[in-house]
């Protein structure tokens, strides 16, 4: 039983819990409402999420036509 508890604790340390998909998308949209436009690095600095997850959600929001990329290569709301 103790080995099992150690494995669970180790897994939680090594693999931190990921945020729900909706949470990251919502945070990106909320940030863009405040900042008007941001590049992916700026978004990554403001959000406490995995960089890969942020990029995935940016692509998803682009495909859903909720955000766009402006002529300065920054993301903004449509």
Report on the structure:
- This protein is mainly alpha-helical and 78 residues long.
- α2 (21-35) crosses α4 (51-63).
- Residues 1-17 have low confidence and may be disordered.
- It has four helices and three strands, in the order ααβααββ.
- A hairpin with a 5-residue loop joins β2 (67-69) and β3.
- The protein has a single domain (19-77), classed as Arc Repressor Mutant, subunit A.
Q: How are the elements arranged and paired?
A:
Blueprint: H1 2-14, H2 21-35, E1 37-38, H3 40-46, H4 51-63, E2 67-69, E3 75-77
Antiparallel strand pairs: 1-3, 2-3
Features:
about 80 residues, mainly alpha, Arc Repressor Mutant, subunit A, 4 helices, 3 strands, ArsR family transcriptional regulator
Major sheet: 3 strands, antiparallel
Provide the CATH superfamily. Answer: Winged helix-like DNA-binding domain superfamily/Winged helix DNA-binding domain
Instruction: Look up the CATH topology.
Output: Arc Repressor Mutant, subunit A
Q: What strand order characterises the main sheet?
A: 1-3-2
Strand content: 5-15%
Question: Rough shape?
Answer: globular
Count of alpha and pi helical runs: 4
Domain count: the total is: 1
The total of beta strands comes to: 3
- Using the coordinates above, name the CATH class: Mainly Alpha
């Amino acid at each position: 039983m103790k080995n099992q508890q150690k494995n669970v604790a180790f897994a939680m340390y090594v693999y931190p819990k990921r945020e729900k998909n909706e949470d990251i998308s919502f945070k990106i949209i909320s940030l863009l409402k405040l900042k008007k436009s941001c590049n992916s690095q700026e978004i990554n600095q403001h959000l406490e999420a995995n960089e890969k997850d942020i990029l995935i959600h940016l692509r998803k929001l682009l495909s859903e036509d909720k955000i766009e990329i402006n002529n300065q290569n920054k993301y903004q709301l449509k």
